[in-house]
Design goal:
The structure is a single chain. The protein has 216 residues and is an all-alpha fold. 62% of the residues lie in helices and 0% in strands. It contains 11 helices and no strands. It is globular, with a radius of gyration of 21 Å.
Length: 216
C-alpha cells in the first residue's frame, strides 16, 4: 500500500504509521516502512501533477515532514525534499504558479520547528512570503504569529541559515520582529490579571500591559 496505492491513501497511511511512533517505548518498528514510503515519494517529486497546485504541493510536503517528525525518524534522504523546494518551487513560480504567503509561512514554520530544513529552501519560502506586504497582515493573525516564530527560530537556533539569508529576506525578518502581535485569547482579562493590576495599583507601582513573544 505504501508503494502502489494512490498518493492520498499513502499519505493517510504514513500519518497513521507516524502515530504509532508516538506510543510509549515505541513498540512498533515502523522505520523501514516510513523510509520505503520516502524513497517512493521522492521519486514522484518533480513537476506539478495534473490538477495539482503549488499550494497543494506545499501542504503535501508539510504533511510528510510532520509525519517523520512525529515518528521520530530522521534521515539524510529528507534533504531531497529540501532540494525540491529550493530548486523546483522557483521554477513553478516562474511558470506562473505563485505560492501564497500563508502556505509559504506554514511550510517554512514546520521545517524550522521540526528541525527539517535547509537554508536555500527557507530562503525560497520567505521570498514567496515577502511578496505580500506586511501592512496587509492583521496584527492578530495566525500568519503573523508563525512569522514571529520563524524569525525567532532563525535568530536563535539556525544561525547558519541566518548567515546565508540575502539582504531582502533579512530586512523582511527585521520588520517582522518589530511588529506587534496580539493574541485574542490573551487580550481578555482573567481573575489573575485583575488581581495583579489591583495589587500593583494599590502599591503605586507604575505598569502597563504588554505581551512579549508569539507564544500563547
Amino acid at each position: 500500500a505504501l508503494v502502489d496505492a494512490p498518493l492520498a491513501e499513502r499519505l493517510d497511511l504514513v500519518r497513521s504509521l507516524a502515530m504509532l511512533g508516538t506510543l510509549p517505548e515505541r513498540p512498533y518498528a515502523i522505520g523501514s516502512y516510513m523510509l520505503l514510503f520516502l524513497e517512493e515519494y521522492i521519486a514522484m517529486l518533480g513537476a506539478l501533477r495534473d490538477g495539482e497546485t503549488i499550494v497543494d504541493r506545499a501542504a503535501e510536503l508539510r504533511e510528510v515532514l510532520r509525519s517523520f517528525n512525529a515518528a521520530g525518524i530522521g534521515t539524510e534522504r529528507l534533504r531531497l525534499i529540501y532540494e525540491h523546494i529550493a530548486q523546483e518551487f522557483p521554477q513553478f513560480e516562474a511558470a506562473g504558479a505563485l505560492l501564497p504567503m500563508p502556505a509559504a509561512v506554514r511550510l517554512c514554520h514546520t521545517m524550522l520547528a521540526t528541525g527539517q530544513s535547509s537554508a536555500p529552501a527557507i530562503v525560497v519560502l520567505l521570498r514567496a512570503a515577502l511578496r505580500e506586504p506586511l501592512v496587509h497582515v492583521a496584527d492578530d493573525s495566525h500568519e503573523l504569529r508563525l512569522l514571529k516564530m520563524i524569525e525567532m527560530l532563525i535568530r536563535l537556533d539556525f544561525l547558519h541559515t541566518q548567515e546565508q539569508l540575502p539582504r531582502d529576506v533579512s530586512e523582511y525578518l527585521s520588520v517582522v520582529r518589530s511588529l506587534r502581535f496580539y493574541d485574542q485569547e490573551l487580550r481578555r482579562n482573567t481573575a489573575l490579571s485583575y488581581q495583579l493590576a489591583f495589587f500593583l495599583k494599590k502599591h503605586g507601582f507604575p505598569s502597563k500591559r504588554h505581551m512579549l513573544g508569539p507564544y500563547p
